[in-house]
Amino acid sequence: MTSMKFEMWSLGHYLMMISPFVIAILLFFLTQGKSDKYKRLVGIILSVICVVLLILRNIEIFSISHKIEPEIIPFQICHFANFVLLFGFLFKNKVWLVIAFCFNLPFAFLSLLFANGLENYSTLYSLRAIAYIWGHILIVAVTLWAFLAGVIESDKKTFKVGMISILLMFVLSVPINNIFMKIMPGFTSNYFYSFKPEKGTPLEIAFNLGENIKFLGMTFNPIYLIITSIFGIALYSLLYKLLQVYNHRVYLTKVV
Fold it and tell me: What distance lies between CA 229 and its chain's CA centroid?
């Protein structure tokens, strides 16, 4: 990564990927032994910073195009993740926090790993580039810290409600993407990556296994949607199991 332009697999890229883990561990030790109220306040403050970064990014996008476009509406996985974290901490909502860990965290990290989109920015000093880098770093760091600090609780109800909520949003993203592209011509709406995969990611393999079809006025790739749904369910379930095991271990440590 140079001073102005992002480069994949550069030193800067590796530092970007490592940063959230370093921040999460530092937060864990800084808040260790603190009350749940204190940890919740830390979570709220950091989540607010994420939301502010997103708002500044959207203001910059609007100032350039002077149009409301899909990129400004925070339905994308990592965009609405900021609000998932904020509402999770603010309202002590177990379901939102579980969704943040089992769903938003892995996709936010994948955005740091496969950060090809950053190469399209002419400079890293734009609000959009800064929000991309620090927004994803903070989503991963804050969620991972909440996990390590034992803030995210697990039970069967939160698992089921969280899973159903994500699947519903994924299914709804298909008609929403199609509607937005009709009412906002010239722009691509790709919430939940249900319209097409991000370039340079493994999701391209799944997309190429099928092809787009038109049905009820909508364009979508059914094979791609089925494969990504299975992948999402498997990933969500795996991370939830990890959450259960970790929480049980923390509980036994406290009892002993």
Answer: 16
d(CA 9, CA 117): 13
The span from the CA of 188 to the CA of 196, in Å, is 10
Q: What is the Rg, in whole angstroms, of the alpha carbon atoms belonging to the chain?
A: 19
Instruction: State both tokens at 134.
Output: 């620090």
Digit-coded pLDDT (tens) for 136-186: 999 999 999 999 999 999 898 999 999 999 999 999 999 999 999 999 998
Cα 97 to Cα 162: distance, rounded to the nearest angstrom: 9
Buried b (16+ CB within 10 A) or exposed e, 189-227: bbbbbbbbbbeebebeebbeeeeeeeeeeeebbeebbeb
Q: With CA atoms as reference, report the closest residue to 142 among 94, 92, 81.
A: 81
Residue written as token pair 């099928």: 210
Instruction: Provide the token pair at 152.
Output: 């995210």
Judge if pTM exceeds 0.90. yes
Distances from the Cα of 105 to the Cα of 34, 120, 160, 189, angstroms:
24, 24, 18, 22
Which residue shows structure tokens 């955005």? 111
Q: What is the rounded CA–CA span in Å between residue 196 and residue 204?
A: 8
